[in-house]
């Protein structure tokens, strides 16, 4: 059974069709990359999956339960974790406190300290646990965000452009982390860096103008003529 399943999922903003009729299935334990040109609808799609954006039409099931109208916090409780672009980091609080706050909803009180330390060690920030989050480099703040997702022990971890702004060494660390998590945690990754996609994803889904253009292994996607025309051939993401 799929862990996540959408049927006919659509979102319109006034007359603009951001996402249209998307049927999307994620199998338990897989690493899936979601790619597509700028404005293709990737953030809108994961916004609907994570409960931040209400769909105009369609349904979402998580672990066999229809969750289409559930608020975001209820989805987190059910094991869905969504990390994006630093906005959830409190710069004035120590790294440890940031992760502990993220742990609150999912981790029993007595296990929080250990869970926080384990999550930070996993992303390579173990030695920075007592620093103020605002003093971390941009790349380390991105890794902190991932730790804040991981500490929730998610069944589905959704990462929105996790390598954006990371230094080369941090990207390598990120790839190793995803390989380490693969199998135990289902991962959905919005990613522009094609090298990362090719190296870590089991399967790739391509959105174009709000519709699912293609899905397949990284090799199949790389060889797909339609995808090349829409995406890989043209813009900066081909690198
Ligand atoms: N709140 C909104 N109001 C109006 N239009 C929106 C809104 N959010 C997104 N859109 C539009 O919907 C379309 C899809 O946007 P979305 O951000 O989902 O694409 P994306 O694939 O994530 O792009 P990027 O790679 O640039 O982040 C775009 O045309 C965008 O301008």
Automatic annotation (TrEMBL):
A GO molecular function for this record? ATP binding
InterPro entries linked to this entry: AAA+_ATPase (IPR003593), ABC_AA/LPS_Transport (IPR051120), ABC_transporter-like_ATP-bd (IPR003439), BCA_ABC_TP_C (IPR032823), P-loop_NTPase (IPR027417)
List the SMART domains: AAA
GO CC annotation:
plasma membrane
The UniProt entry, under Gene3D superfamilies, shows:
P-loop containing nucleotide triphosphate hydrolases (3.40.50.300)
Q: Where is the ABC transporter domain?
A: 4-234
Q: Does the keyword Transport apply?
A: yes
Q: In terms of domain of life, where is this protein from?
A: Bacteria
Q: Which SUPFAM superfamilies match?
A: P-loop containing nucleoside triphosphate hydrolases
Which UniProt keywords are present, listed alphabetically?
Answer: ATP-binding, Nucleotide-binding, Transport
Has the keyword Metal-binding been applied to this entry? no
Q: Name one Pfam family in it.
A: ABC_tran
Q: What protein name does the entry list?
A: ABC branched chain amino acid family transporter, ATPase subunit
Q: Which organism is it from?
A: Roseovarius nubinhibens (strain ATCC BAA-591 / DSM 15170 / ISM)
């Amino acid at each position: 059974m799929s862990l996540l399943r959408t049927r006919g999922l659509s979102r319109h903003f006034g007359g603009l069709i951001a996402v249209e009729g998307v049927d999307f299935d994620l199998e338990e334990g897989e690493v899936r990359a979601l790619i597509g040109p700028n404005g293709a609808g990737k953030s809108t799609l994961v916004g609907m999956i994570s409960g931040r954006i209400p769909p105009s039409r369609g349904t979402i099931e998580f672990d066999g339960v229809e969750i289409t109208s559930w608020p975001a916090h209820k989805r987190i409780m059910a094991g869905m974790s969504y990390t994006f672009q630093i906005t959830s980091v409190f710069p004035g609080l120590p790294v440890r406190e940031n992760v502990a706050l993220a742990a609150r909803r999912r981790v029993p009180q007595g296990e929080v300290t250990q869970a926080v330390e384990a999550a930070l060690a996993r992303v390579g920030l173990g030695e920075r646990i007592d620093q103020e989050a605002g003093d971390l480099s941009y790349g380390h703040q991105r890794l902190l965000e991932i730790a804040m997702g991981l500490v929730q022990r998610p069944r589905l971890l959704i990462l929105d452009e996790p390598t954006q702004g990371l230094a080369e060494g941090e990207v390598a660390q990120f790839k190793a982390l995803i390989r380490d998590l693969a199998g135990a945690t289902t991962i959905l990754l919005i990613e522009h860096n094609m090298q990362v996609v090719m190296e870590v994803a089991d399967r790739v889904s391509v959105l174009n103008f709000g519709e699912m253009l293609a899905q397949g292994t990284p090799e199949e996607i790389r060889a797909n003529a339609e995808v090349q025309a829409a995406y890989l051939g043209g813009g900066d993401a081909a690198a």
